[in-house]
Design a protein that fits this description.
Elements (H helix, E strand, L loop, with lengths): L4 H4 L23 H15 L6 H4 L4 H13 L8 H15 L11 H5 L21 E5 L11 E5 H7 L4 H14 L9 H13 L5 H6 L15 H12 L5 H9 L5 H18 L8 H10 L4 H11 L4 H10 L8 H4 E3 L8 E3 L5 H9 L12
Antiparallel strand pairs: 1-2, 3-4
Helix pairs in contact: 2-4, 2-5, 8-9, 11-16, 13-15, 13-18
Length: 375
């Protein structure tokens, strides 16, 4: 006797915590992609949600799974948490992009852990249903929908990205800067530069190209960084304002193989310090982070970094990162250092390097004492 659709779609036990239960059978859908679509439709019904109209009202795997689920669960009121809604929406997005998510590798709790209040590209507050609506962006369009490749951005930033590679985004940012164009696809030149940085972080790049991209966004902790020089760049940028950085920087310099590299490292440190000295003492955590990112818009600082970083191979980068593994990034409270003797009463955000020294190092000419080598 032929089984009915309801009998084919009997559910497996539901875990109310992880909400990853899917039907034991996927109805008439035997293609793997269609089977996943059926499961997504089933979970919509189980959580009391309705798939997007074009999918719910045409015959496809999503609508079949939703119909089968409604036959089992009925028209229950929606009780899904925000994290579950995001998880289900992202699974649907991945299915439509022909890059289905394995629910065992991406959990609702992980998505909840990377939520953001502001778009890292536009820097505007996220919310609503317009251009600033929060959405998940797959930074490397060729990569998988895994937590290390996902970022919460505005809808405007996600639409502008549209699957571009890091090189393509960087090229667009550079063309805008040269042509003095105000906006392209709703983003200004600074926003395109930040999008180029974010895209480059998760894509393996030749060292020469990775070093060339300014660190216009500090990488969120959950991203899987693929370029060691960018990881080191982020550690140094965050750590320069933390108390005790001069001692730590000196310790890192001791692991460099020759005098020329140590000189170039110290010149870079001075250039970065000169930019960070201007951060106001009253800046909150977000303002400090944005100021650190904006420091990399300075062409001189970028040249100082490139002169040093092009001499590093991957092994040397990993050695320096291991040495800096215990560093704690500066926060507004811990970044304030006494610039006078203890008790003098003056507090301001200062790295442990004097103003005179930082400006002297920042203005020092780039020497050719060492010939850059590339890993």
């Amino acid at each position: 006797m032929h089984q009915t659709l309801l009998e084919l779609a009997l559910p497996s036990p539901i875990n109310p915590v992880t909400a990853t239960a899917t039907p034991c059978h996927a109805g008439p859908w035997t293609d793997p992609a269609a089977r996943i679509g059926f499961e997504i439709g089933w979970d919509h019904a189980r959580l009391g949600l309705v798939p997007p109209a074009p999918l719910a009202h045409t015959r496809n795997a999503i609508s079949e799974g939703w119909s089968a689920g409604r036959a089992v669960f009925g028209t229950r009121p929606a009780g899904a948490t925000r994290a579950l809604r995001q998880w289900l929406g992202l699974r649907l997005q991945a299915w439509q992009a022909d890059a289905p998510i394995d629910p065992a590798r991406l959990k609702p709790q992980q998505l909840a852990g990377i939520e953001a209040l502001h778009c890292p590209v536009t820097r505007r507050a996220l919310g609503g249903n317009g251009d600033d609506a929060p959405t998940f962006l797959r930074l490397d369009a060729r990569g998988q929908f895994v937590i290390g490749n996902l970022l919460v951005v505005s809808r405007l930033a996600a639409q502008a990205h549209a699957g571009l590679t890091a090189a393509q985004v960087l090229q667009r940012a550079e063309r805008m800067a040269l042509a003095h164009t105000s906006t392209v696809d709703g983003l200004d030149a600074a926003a395109w530069a930040r999008l180029a940085t974010l895209t480059s972080l998760v894509q393996p790049l030749p060292p020469v190209q990775a070093v060339r991209i300014p660190l216009r966004v500090l990488p969120p902790a959950h991203l899987s960084l693929r370029n060691p020089t960018q990881a080191l760049q982020a550690v140094l940028t965050r750590g320069l304002q933390a108390p005790g950085f001069a001692r730590r920087a000196a310790s890192l310099a001791e692991h460099l193989p020759d005098t020329g590299m140590r000189h170039d490292f110290n010149v870079f440190v001075g250039a970065l310090a000169a930019r960070l000295l201007a951060i106001p003492v009253e800046a909150d955590e977000r303002q400090v982070r944005w100021a650190q990112e904006d420091a990399w818009a300075d062409a001189r600082l970028q040249r100082r970094w490139a002169q040093f970083a092009l001499q590093l191979d991957a092994a040397r980068c990993q050695t320096l990162l291991a040495q800096a593994a215990g560093w704690r990034a500066a926060t507004p409270g811990r970044a304030r250092r006494m610039t006078q003797a203890p008790g003098a009463g003056s507090t301001s955000i200062r790295p442990q390097i004097s103003t005179m020294t930082s400006h002297r190092l920042a203005a020092a000419p780039i020497t050719s004492s060492t010939r850059p080598s590339v890993c």
